[in-house]
Write a structure and sequence with these properties.
The protein is an alpha/beta fold. The chain has 5 helices and 6 strands; from the N terminus they run E-E-E-H-H-E-E-E-H-H-H. Strand 5 and strand 6 form a beta hairpin. Helix 2 packs across helix 3.
Length: 173
């Protein structure tokens, strides 16, 4: 990232903190929490390390609509090959106004929308939700044929359990 500005960093020392270091963004600033006994050299080392971790994490979380469409293409090839163009969406995009469900599909215009809340979840969970919506392009209802097609994805039950867990702790749907 040549030319990228280093963010304003606030270091907070804690007498209670013994070994752990953590960091988070607060607006444009990065707050790094360290043990009080750390030397200035350790502080500097950990600030650099935590800035790198935050940057890596944020890089992973930046998922584009183009990436979603490519992901959809891979899932179609793996699990819905025999349906050809019937399984291909006209558009796939992230949306931030979908708080009551993880994804939605409009078969009439072949559009799929995934909640931005999924962006921080593991790839295999995103794949499950995306495949679920792709199958709606083939089967509108949640009938036996629908679930048989979704069930081709080997991590279906695991992903459903993950999403149920998120929902149970207040992540909605």
């Amino acid at each position: 990232m040549a030319g990228a500005r280093k963010p304003v960093v606030e270091v907070r020392r804690s007498q209670r903190r013994r070994r752990t270091v953590s960091a988070y963004r607060d607006g444009e600033r990065v707050v790094v929490l360290i043990p009080d006994q750390f030397s200035r050299a350790e502080e500097s080392e950990w600030v650099d390390r935590m800035l790198a971790r935050l940057a890596a994490r944020e890089g992973r979380l930046t998922r584009s609509d183009t990436e979603l469409l490519e992901r959809a293409g891979r899932l179609i090839k793996l699990y819905l090959t025999e349906y050809g163009d019937q399984a291909v969406p006209a558009s796939v995009r992230w949306v931030s106004n979908q708080n009551g469900r993880w994804g939605s599909c409009t078969p009439a215009d072949r559009s799929i929308r995934l909640s931005h809340r999924l962006q921080e979840m593991p790839d295999w969970v995103i794949d499950y939700v995306l495949l679920h919506e792709l199958v709606h392009l083939i089967v509108a209802s949640h009938n036996a044929q629908f679930w048989a097609l979704v069930g081709r994805y080997p991590k279906t039950e695991r992903a459903r359990g993950y999403l149920e867990g998120v929902a149970a702790v207040g992540g909605t749907p």
